[in-house]
Amino acid sequence: MILLTQLTQDQLVAQLMNGVTLMLLGMGTVLLFLVVLIFVTKGMSHFVTKYEAKKPQVAPATATRDNSNNNAATPNTSADTEIAAAIAAAVAKSRE
User: Fold this and answer.
1) Is the CB of residue 52 less than 8 Å from the CB of residue 45?
2) Hey, where are the domains in the chain?
3) How far is CA 37 from CA 25, 43, 50, 81, 89, in A?
4) What is the pLDDT of residues 66-81, one digit of tens each?
5) Do residues 32 and 40 lie in contact, with contact meaning Cβ atoms separated by under 8 Å?
6) What is the 3-state secondary structure (H, E, C) of the chain?
7) What is the pTM of this model?
8) Rounded distance, CA 68 to CA 63, Å?
9) What is the pLDDT of residue 4?
C-alpha cells in the first residue's frame, strides 16, 4: 500500500487531477442522462396526450338503483366488508 507521503509532488498532483477529471466526467454523465430523461418524458407526455385526444370518448356506465327500496344494502357491501377485513389482517400481520 502506498501512502500519500511516499508519492512525489508531481505524482500527487497527477492523482488529484485524475480524480477531479473522473468526478467531473461522472457528474456530467449523470446530468446529461437526467436532461435527456426530462425531454423524453415530456415528449412521451405530449405524444400520449395527442393520442388520447384522438380516441373516442366512452361514456361511463351509470348504475341504476331501484328507488322502491332506499334502505336496502348495496350489492358491494359484502365485498367492501371482505376488503376491509383483508386490509385489517394485513396491517395486523405487518405489525407482528
Assistant:
1) no
2) 8-55
3) 18, 10, 20, 43, 40
4) 555 555 555 567 788 8
5) no
6) CCCHHHCCHHHHHHHHHHHHHHHHHHHHHHHHHHHHHHHHHHHHHHHHHHHHHHCCCCCCCCCCCCCCCCCCCCCCHHHHHHHHHHHHHHHHHHCC
7) 0.48
8) 15
9) 76
> Which of 27, 28, 26, 3 shows the shortest CA–CA distance to 15?
3
Q: How far apart are CA 14 and CA 30, in angstroms?
A: 24
Question: Could you count the other beta carbons within 10 Å of the beta carbon of residue 7?
Answer: 13
